[in-house]
Request: fold
Amino acid sequence: MQTAVQVTGPVQSFPWLLCNLRWLAVICQGLTIALAAGPLGVDLQTTPLWIGVAVLAVFNVYATWDARHRGERPASVSFTHLLVDIGVLAWLVSWSGGIENPFSSLFLLPIVLAVFALPGRWLWPTAAACLLAYVVSALLARELPHVHGAADPFSLHKWGMFANFAVSAAVLLIFFSRMAAAIRQKEREMERLREQFARNEGIVALATHAASVAHELNTPLATLTLLVEELEAAGGTTQQREDFATLRALIDVCRDRVRELAMPAEGGEVRDTRVDLESVIERWKVMRPAIELRRSGSINGHERVEPAVGHLLQALLNNAADAGGKAGRPVVDLRLEAREGGLEGEVRDYGVGLDEAAPLLPARLFRSDKPGGLGIGLALSHATVERLGGRLSMQAPEQGTGVKVSFELPAVRPT
Reply:
């Protein structure tokens, strides 16, 4: 079981699909001309027909280059390409019997393609172009000569209708199957973006609220510091002094965290906001003294990281500590490994493990199955990794119970 932050590849563009269909048309048109003028013995003027096929092939070379190097193009470009297809088709039909040609119904295909792939304002111009081409091919058509040796000339026409049906069915099958796949992919992408937007909207609201609360907490934290200092000065037993020292350390951690929250809102000169990763881990150990942290790996050269990486690590450690503590195994394994241009990490708890019925990543903030949990730790971790262009995965460990969360952060900047 694993999930990863990744960007879905782009859906195939309509111009690129047109290029593929156009190559199919060039092949089919060439085969039809060769078959009609050869084995079937139809007296056609093949030179104008081969010129039309050659023009379409040359144009498609340019269209393929354009689609490959320029990517997504405006609808006007696709409409222009369709006009070229319609014009070449009108030329070929006019030189091969006009509307008596069984392939004359192919004028409907550009209209079908436009309906599903172009904005509404281009549909009527496409339909008008197809109608005009149909009329022109009827008025300027060169009639098909009699096929010598054919006992039933209409049977030849019926075979042409069959070939036309087969070609039209193949084109529609290719087009609609790819369009259906594109629509499904876009729907999945839209659903992912909606979930991401809802989550990020909640995170922005949370950050705004946290910035204001940071200023409000400054005064009570200062008061608590004074009270603890007075209690330490008053003396007491050794155990009491140790408790006061622990309280003082916890208050210092809270004060530092509040100042970090308020720092981005302060004006003035630009400063290095990166944090020391070892300090982040030591601060977490002060906050969770009952948890045994087992370290491995080396982060030489990547000690200072963006604040978001520190938040990510603390959130993952807290989740692991909560899971292990709930199961009666307050142990967390942490592996941090510096790689060229990035950082890899792994946090493993010894809790009850993954719930197969529950989603790996929360779709919304503020939902938690932990007593007293805020429901933001894993969502913030996911958002952090996503923003830094990294990868986050969750899986069961090879041995024992618990969950192993791995992350890769290629965007981490060393000192």
In short: Strands lie at 275-276, 292-296, 304-305, 331-339, 342-349, 391-395, 404-409. The CA atoms of residues 320 and 349 lie 5 Å apart. The first strand starts at residue 275 and ends at 276.
